[in-house]
Every structure is written in structure tokens, then in C-alpha cells.
From TrEMBL:
Segment forming the signal sequence: 1-18
Entry annotated with the keyword Transmembrane: yes
Keyword Transmembrane helix: yes
Official protein name in the record: Secreted mucin
Residue stretches of biased makeup (Low complexity): 263-274
Record keywords: Membrane, Signal, Transmembrane, Transmembrane helix
Record's compositionally biased regions (Polar residues): 332-352
UniProt lineage: Eukaryota, Metazoa, Ecdysozoa, Arthropoda, Hexapoda
Region (Disordered): 263-291, 304-323, 332-365
Transmembrane stretches, start-end: 229-252
């Protein structure tokens, strides 16, 4: 599609000039002056003449304009000059003309054609049997004047001007496939043979068509064709660029979507793993804390039980115990030894008894 667009543009810019006609609209071609700017337009027309030169021998020109009940009031007149290329002459044929005339046959709206010799012709109609035509070797000045003070008869009425300009040249050999002689008595009257039987009258005596009384057909416009080709190529390029841009945009968006989805999946898996790890860690910590609590309780209980078994006061230094009762009062020994005589208790065996004073007399019990 890109190659097609490039080819179309190259064909347009290289020049799609074929055999045909250039069509000109008076208003779009800025050949008519608006009524509100009529004074400035007339002043400007003195140093800026609107001259239209025909392109080549094989290409004609059609000047056409229609006005309705509203548009004809906006324009005061249309004025321009037609010129042929160097070495050629000019034919101008009034193909269609619809202008207003009063009850006496006078022209309300009129068209005037001035030739290079100063001859000026005013008219507001063209005969149907032989269309009005003009010929000049240098130029033709055309002026169209509309009377806006008089309204059209009905709203649907229109004013119309349609004229065809064709270049002629000196006939070299009319028997060739390139030339067609309009007037057998005039040497400088040959037009291009491609204008023959194309539905448009080019010669003044209608020799290029079967008859003069025929309805003009839609013309092949080389200028419009070039414009259409350029527009078509430009639109093709725009469409191609838009399609490729949309394709790359969709590709970019899909790539971003895939990357975002993969990133979100990895993030969710990491977060899930972290949550599981945190949960497991929390559970292990909870279990450990519970074990520590239980161990603490057990240790407390064990410490409490050990405290019950052992004295809380510091251990005293071990001392000598007092003698036992048997050691103090040996009854068996005394009873067995009664027969032997009185027995005395030794002071050495009873550390608690005070020693006997040698100065005092011990009274036996």
C-alpha cells in the first residue's frame, strides 16, 4: 500500500497532463470581485491583472460559473484576460449562456469580449444553431457584469456562463494524427485532433463535432485529475501511516500488558511466599513463646519446690553437738556397777558440767 501511495504521488507530481481540459470556476479562481470590496478590487486591478494563459496546444480550458438568487447579489463583476502560449492563437466559444433580458430585449446582465484590435462585443445570449465564438492571436479580455438591483424572476432561477478556450496554430500537415483544421481557408486555424468528437465545440463553425446543436457533456479535466491524484495519494499515505501507527500502538500496548501481567504475577507469588513465611515464622514464634512460658512456669515451680526442700536462710557453720542422754546418764552402767562401790562422774566426760573447785569440798549426792 505504501508503494502504491508513492507511485500515485510521483505520477501526480511528475505531471499527469493528458489530453483534456482545465476547468476554472470564476469565484474559486478569484476572477470575480465581491460587491463590498468592489472599489478596492477595481483599484487593485490596474496593477494586478488577472491573466490566464493556456498550458499547451493539446489542453483546452473551460471557464464556468453559475449564480443562484442569493449568490449573484454578492458579486459585481468578473474580469480576466485569456492569452495563448507563444506561437499560438486563441479560439473562444460561448458554449452556454443564461442571462436576463428586459421586455424590449435589452440585456440586464451582460458579457463583453474585447479583442486585441480594440473591438468589443457585448451580449447576453448565444445562438443555439451556431454558438458565439471569438478568435484572436494575442489575447481576449472577458468581462461579466451582473445587475444585483433586479431580483431573479423565481428563487429557482440561475444565471450561467460557460465558455471554452482552445489554442490554434499554423497548420503544418492536417493529414497527420495531431492536427485538425477548423477553417479550410485560414492557414492559422489548426487545433489538436484530440478535440474532435469529444462533445465540446472548439472550432467556430463546429467542424470538430457532428453538429453545433448539442448539449455539452462532462469534460475530462486534466487539472482536476491531477488534484484528485494528489489528494488520493495524500489520503493513501495518511491511511497507511494511521494503520501502521495503530498496529505498532497495539503491539506496544500488548507488550506492556504482558510485562505488567508477568510482573504482577511474580509480585503476587513473592507476596504470597512472604505471607506464608511470615505466617510460619509467626506460628513458630508463638509456639516458642508458649514453650518459653511453659518452661518458665516449670522453672518457677521447680525453683519453688527446690526452695521448699532447701532452707532459705544461709547454712550455718556446723558446731559440736551436745552429748547424748545416754552419755550423760549411763543408767545401765551405773546399775551394773553399784556393787563395786560409788561411782563418780569424770569431769572430762561432761564438758557441760563445771569443773570442781579444789578449794571447795564436793558434797556427794
Amino acid at each position: 500500500m505504501v508503494q502504491y501511495s508513492i507511485i500515485v504521488l510521483l505520477a501526480a507530481f511528475c505531471g499527469a497532463y493528458g489530453i483534456g481540459y482545465e476547468q476554472h470556476n470564476f469565484i474559486r479562481s478569484e476572477l470575480c470581485y465581491e460587491r463590498r470590496n468592489a472599489l478596492f478590487s477595481k483599484i487593485g486591478s490596474f496593477w494586478e491583472r488577472k491573466v490566464r494563459t493556456l498550458p499547451d496546444f493539446a489542453t483546452g480550458a473551460v471557464f464556468e460559473q453559475s449564480w443562484n438568487s442569493s449568490s449573484y447579489k454578492r458579486y459585481s463583476e468578473c474580469k480576466f484576460t485569456l492569452q495563448p502560449t507563444i506561437g499560438h492563437g486563441l479560439y473562444l466559444t460561448i458554449a452556454e449562456l443564461t442571462m436576463r433580458r428586459d421586455a424590449k430585449g435589452g440585456c440586464i446582465d451582460q458579457v463583453s469580449v474585447k479583442q486585441s484590435n480594440g473591438k468589443k462585443t457585448r451580449f447576453c445570449y448565444t445562438p443555439r444553431d451556431v454558438p458565439r465564438s471569438f478568435s484572436d492571436a494575442i489575447y481576449l479580455k472577458i468581462t461579466i457584469i451582473l445587475d444585483h438591483s433586479i431580483p431573479l424572476t423565481t428563487v429557482d432561477d440561475t444565471l450561467l456562463v460557460r465558455m471554452v478556450a482552445t489554442q490554434n496554430r499554423e497548420c503544418i500537415d492536417s493529414r497527420t494524427d495531431e492536427e485538425l483544421r477548423c477553417d479550410p481557408h485560414v492557414l492559422h486555424s489548426c487545433i489538436h485532433r484530440s478535440f474532435m468528437n469529444d462533445g465540446t465545440i472548439n472550432c467556430p463553425n463546429c467542424i470538430d463535432e457532428p453538429s453545433c446543436d448539442q448539449k455539452p457533456v462532462e469534460l475530462f479535466d486534466a487539472n482536476n485529475l491531477k488534484e484528485k491524484i494528489v489528494i488520493t495519494g495524500f489520503l493513501s499515505l495518511l491511511t497507511t501511516g494511521f494503520v501502521f501507527g495503530l498496529f505498532f500502538l497495539c503491539l506496544y500496548k500488548s507488550r506492556q500488558w504482558v510485562l505488567s501481567c508477568s510482573g504482577s504475577n511474580s509480585t503476587s507469588s513473592n507476596s504470597t511466599g512472604n505471607r506464608v513465611h511470615v505466617t510460619r515464622t509467626g506460628r513458630s514464634r508463638t509456639r516458642q513463646e508458649r514453650g518459653n512460658v511453659v518452661a518458665g512456669v516449670h522453672s518457677v515451680e521447680l525453683r519453688g519446690s527446690s526452695n521448699d526442700l532447701r532452707p532459705s536462710a544461709p547454712a550455718l557453720e556446723e558446731k559440736d553437738l551436745p552429748p547424748s542422754y545416754d552419755a550423760l546418764f549411763p543408767t545401765t552402767t551405773v546399775a551394773s556397777s553399784t556393787s563395786a562401790g560409788p561411782t563418780t562422774v569424770s569431769a572430762a566426760t561432761s564438758p557441760t558440767l563445771p569443773k570442781a573447785n579444789p578449794d571447795r569440798e564436793i558434797i556427794p549426792a
